[in-house]
Every structure is written in C-alpha cells, then in structure tokens.
C-alpha cells in the first residue's frame, strides 16, 4: 500500500510550530535537499553537526541526515531524545564494515591503533581509538606518533588520501562511498573542456584520479568556504549534489556544476545524489518531529564505549581550533 501523503499540511509552518512546542533542534547535513536545509537550525558537515549535538540545550534533536550521524548525536547527548526522518537512511561506508568482520581484521594487527571515519556504525566506534571526520582527519592522523601502526577504517579513498598527505602507511579497510566512487576523472576532463574557466574541487572520499584533477580537496564545509573565498566564478564540484544549495545561496553570482558520474563504464545521471541522504523528505521530517519516532536507541554499553573515541576527536579538534 502506498504511504498516505497529506498535501494539505504546510510542512514549513508545522515544523516551526512543533519545534517550538517540543523545544527541538533540527540539525541538517549539507547533503539534504534544499527545503530541509532551509528549515534547519544548523546546517553543517559531520564535525560541525557533532559539535552542535554535544552542546545543544534542546530536549530533542531531530537529525536530518543519515543514521550514523544521528547515532553520533545520541552518543554525545545520551539524555536527549534523538529522532531521524527515516531509520533506513544508512551509508555504504557503514555497511562495508560490520563489527564482527572488523574485529577479525583488527586481530591480525595487535600493535595497531584504530582511527575510524565517523561514517561507521556505533558498534565499530566501540572498536576504535580515535574517530575522525574529513575536516579533522589530517590533524588526527598527525597527532599519533609516527612509529605507531594505524588501522584506518572504513573509507579506503580517504585513507589513501591521508597516507599521501601525511606520509604514513596506515593499514586500510576496503570500504568506499557509493556516491564519491562514481565521480569520473575522464568525464570531469570533458566537462572542463565545456567550461574552461571552471575550477575543480573535490571531497577526499573521491578516488585518486578525481582528486588529481582538483585544485582544492576538503570536507563539505571546506568546499563551501573555498567557493566563497576563491576569486573563481565557476566550479565543478565533486561531492554529493546537496552542497550546491548552500554554495549557490552564499555566492549567487557564481556558477556551480556537480561533477559528472559514471557507473559500469556509462555516464550516470543520478549517482551524485546519495540514495540514503535523499530518503529524507519534508513530510518525513515533519512526521518524525510530530511522532518523536523513529528514535535512536543504543545500549548503555555502546553509548559509553563509543563516546570515548568521539570525545578524543573533539578534544584534538578543539586544540587546533577546528
Ligand atoms: P563531511 O560532512 O565531513 O564533509 O562528510 C561528508 C559525508 O560523506 C557525509 O556522509
Ligand atoms: Fe555514506 Fe557516501 Fe551517502 Fe555520505 S554520501 S552518507 S558517505 S553513502
């Protein structure tokens, strides 16, 4: 049976009313659709969203993003109710690293410490020494003594980028983002012929051939700031399409193109939209705020064990003013 969609509801007005009534805060990732970003109290990257979740005075956090982000918010604010529009909003990186398989992998390197990208399950975080995001990853890796062996999970593309950037030789888990791995260096080259003035910028979850084409590599916040500060008037952006909403808002006179994607050797029209992020809609956002469901529930044991590596990340980030 098809879900009932009530087109009579003014979602923007109802969300504002319920938010006030319930003392709720809406945190949205840059990869959400524009309408969701426009009703959020805070829009940010994974690090910024974690920092907001840790300090909010709201009673309820409505997390417009994917499940691992809402879980991170719950771990940082365990006394708050954390809800998200669609519980099925997962992440290919999280899926790539089931805790039991990772535990067996980790056992092969008893001397190694584990740095995990925040895009992983709460369970994987319990097997981690320090969590990182794309904003702080270089600083976090560099904070570890050079002779210390490191396992980096679950994103091999970010891990390879960090190895190149820091000169380390971290042992990498074999995971990838299903969106970023489809950006095509060849098609970007063709797009550049079409828009010769455009600057290519990329998220480090992209593969090396794509990163090699970029004049700037950074997190979603880094990319957004770069487009604001760069004298360039046109950009080809290799990250999920949602970020263009804030880029266009911040620089209405500049032109933005999402980098082209390809799958199985063929150009792909929708691969730059994350199917997990894009599960969220205004109606689901309204319903989760109204029904206070689906809610993130984690065991005391996981809450406690997963908090330590996230706290370490926040401490190191604060030290560097991130
Ligand atoms: P950042 O928000 O840290 O740039 O990460 C992007 C991402 O892939 C989130 O799923
Ligand atoms: Fe995961 Fe990639 Fe989607 Fe981010 S864009 S949630 S890393 S699948």
Present the secondary structure layout.
Layout: H1 11-21, E1 24-29, H2 34-39, E2 42-44, H3 46-55, E3 60-64, H4 67-76, E4 81-83, H5 92-96, H6 99-107, E5 113-117, H7 122-125, E6 130-132, H8 137-142, E7 150-153, H9 156-166, E8 171-172, H10 185-194, E9 199-202, H11 208-211, E10 216-217, H12 220-229, E11 234-238, H13 244-250, E12 255-258, E13 261-263, E14 266-268, H14 282-291, H15 300-319
Parallel strand pairs: 1-2, 1-3, 3-4, 5-6, 5-7, 7-8, 9-10, 9-11, 11-12
Antiparallel strand pairs: 13-14
Bound molecules: 1,3-dihydroxyacetonephosphate and iron/sulfur cluster.
CATH superfamily of the largest domain, by name, is: NadA-like
Q: Biggest sheet, in brief?
A: 4 strands, parallel
General shape? globular
- Radius of gyration computed on alpha carbons: 19 Å
CATH class of the largest domain: Alpha Beta
Uncertain spans: none
From N to C, what is the helix and strand string?
Answer: HEHEHEHEHHEHEHEHEHEHEHEHEEEHH
Query: On the 0-100 scale, what is the average pLDDT?
Result: 97
Distinct bound molecules: 1,3-dihydroxyacetonephosphate, iron/sulfur cluster
Strand order of the largest sheet: 2-1-3-4
């Amino acid at each position: 049976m098809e879900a009932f969609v009530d087109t009579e509801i003014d979602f923007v007005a109802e969300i504002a009313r319920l938010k006030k009534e319930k003392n709720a805060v809406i945190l949205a990732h840059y990869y959400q659709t524009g309408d969701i970003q426009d009703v959020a109290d805070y829009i940010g990257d994974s690090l910024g969203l974690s920092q907001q979740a840790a300090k909010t005075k709201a009673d309820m956090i409505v997390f417009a993003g994917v499940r691992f982000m809402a879980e991170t918010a719950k771990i940082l604010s365990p006394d708050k109710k954390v809800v998200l529009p669609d519980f099925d909003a997962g992440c290919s990186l999280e899926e790539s690293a089931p805790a039991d398989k990772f535990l067996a992998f980790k056992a092969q390197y008893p001397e190694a410490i584990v740095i995990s990208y925040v895009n992983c399950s709460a369970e994987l975080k319990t097997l981690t020494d320090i969590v990182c995001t794309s904003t702080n990853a270089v600083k976090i890796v560099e904070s570890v003594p050079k002779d210390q062996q490191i396992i980096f999970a679950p994103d091999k593309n970010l891990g390879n980028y960090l190895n190149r950037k820091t000169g380390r030789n971290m042992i990498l888990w074999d995971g990838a983002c299903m969106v970023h791995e489809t950006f095509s260096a060849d098609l970007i080259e063709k797009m550049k012929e079409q828009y010769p003035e455009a600057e290519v910028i990329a998220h480090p979850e992209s593969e090396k051939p794509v990163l090699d084409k970029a004049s700037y590599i950074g997190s979603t916040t880094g990319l957004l700031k770069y487009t604001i500060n760069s004298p360039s008037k046109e950009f080809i952006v290799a990250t999920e399409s949602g970020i263009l909403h804030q880029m266009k808002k911040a620089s209405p006179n500049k032109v933005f193109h999402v980098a082209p994607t390809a799958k199985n050797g063929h150009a792909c029209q929708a691969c730059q939209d994350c199917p997990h992020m894009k599960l969220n809609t205004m109606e689901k956002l309204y319903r989760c705020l109204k029904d206070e469901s689906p809610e993130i529930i984690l065991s005391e044991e996981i809450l406690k064990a997963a908090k330590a590596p996230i706290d370490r990340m926040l401490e190191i980030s604060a030290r560097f003013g991130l």
